[in-house]
Amino acid sequence: MTHFVDPVAHNVAIITTTLTACMVLEYMWFVSDEFRLIWPRIWKSTEAKHFMVTRYAGLAGQSYNIWFAFRMSTGVPNSQLACKVWTSYQTVITQYLLFSVELLLMKLVYKMYKKSKPICALLFIFGGAQCAAMVVNARMIVTGSRYSPTCVILSPHHSRIYVGVSIIVTFVFILVAMLWRFFGNQADWSEVPHAWLKLAVRDGSCTVIAITCWTHSASPREVP
Q1: In principle, which of 34, 41, 193, 207 could form an S-S bond with 45, CB 3.0–4.6 Å?
Q2: Strand-pair partners of 147
Q3: Is the Cβ–Cβ distance between 91 and 134 less than 8 Å?
Q4: What sign does the CA torsion over 145, 135, 127, 99 have?
Q5: Could you read off the pLDDT of 38-86 as tens digits, one per residue?
Q6: What is the DSSP annotation of 19-70?
Q7: SS3 for 153?
């Protein structure tokens, strides 16, 4: 049986494969730093355990995404329920990974400011607002979207703009707080906090760029 090849689904498969390749390359590029800085602390530090679970959960989750993306590209029809399940999986994994990285960075900022109550309150406000936006966004995306037989979203929900803005604002606040403390007390920092700062700048910058492109990119096909 010959299936119609959806060009949008084909692009999704290409993008998913490309992003997975970039993820694997990034893991290989920084694996020496991981062995040097993270693994020696794996049994002593909650942050190290959290980092490892988050790091490899993303890589494992991409394997399912690649399989489903290529299933979409071949034109195999799916039920609306299957499409909602896949979208829910994508949404949960993405938001879990984003918020997990931010929690690690928030804990570091909290320690950098010697557990200051005002900083704790600000982190709680930014983190709580983003968490609420993520929950609302996830519900609206799953329940308020329509799909093609290959699970391409036909009626995207514009709530992604609000959650994108909340993610960018939170990351910017974390970066500013870290940089402010870093330049104020640079001499007191050890190698591990320096590595965390590099991670925050790198991942924060990439996240801001990716979220900005995501929220301003062309929406999927609208069907009346």
Answers
A1: 41
A2: 153
A3: no
A4: negative
A5: 888 888 888 788 778 878 877 887 888 888 888 888 888 888 888 888 8
A6: HHHHHHHHHHHTHHHIIIIIGGGTTT-HHHHHHHHHHHHHHHHHHHHHHHHH
A7: strand
Nearest residue to 89 (alpha-carbon basis) of 57, 111, 112, 121: 57
For residue 173, the number of C-alpha atoms closer than 13 Å in the C-beta half-sphere is: 20
CB 85 within 8 Å of CB 151:
no
**What are the residues whose beta carbons fall under 8 Å from the beta carbon of 102, sequence distance 6 or more?**
127, 130, 170, 171, 174
Q: What is the pLDDT of residues 140-187, one digit of tens each?
A: 776 777 788 888 877 665 666 666 777 778 877 887 887 777 676 655
Which residue in the block uniquely carries the two structure tokens 């920084």? 30
- Alpha-carbon span 168 to 161, nearest angstrom: 11
Q: Is the dihedral of CA 135, 137, 138, 144 positive or negative?
A: positive
The string of DSSP codes covering 75-121 is T----HHHHHHHHHHHHHHHHHHHHHHHHHHHHHHHHHTTS-HHHHH
Q: Kindly report the pTM of this predicted structure.
A: 0.68
DSSP state, 148?
-
Pairs from 193-201 (Cβ < 8 Å, separation ≥ 24): 193/108, 193/112, 195/33, 195/37, 196/105, 196/108, 200/105, 200/108, 200/174, 200/175, 201/175
Assign 108 a pLDDT band (cuts: 50, 70, 90): confident
Q: Which residues pair with 153 in a beta bridge?
A: 147
Distance separating alpha carbons of residues 84 and 61, to the nearest angstrom:
17
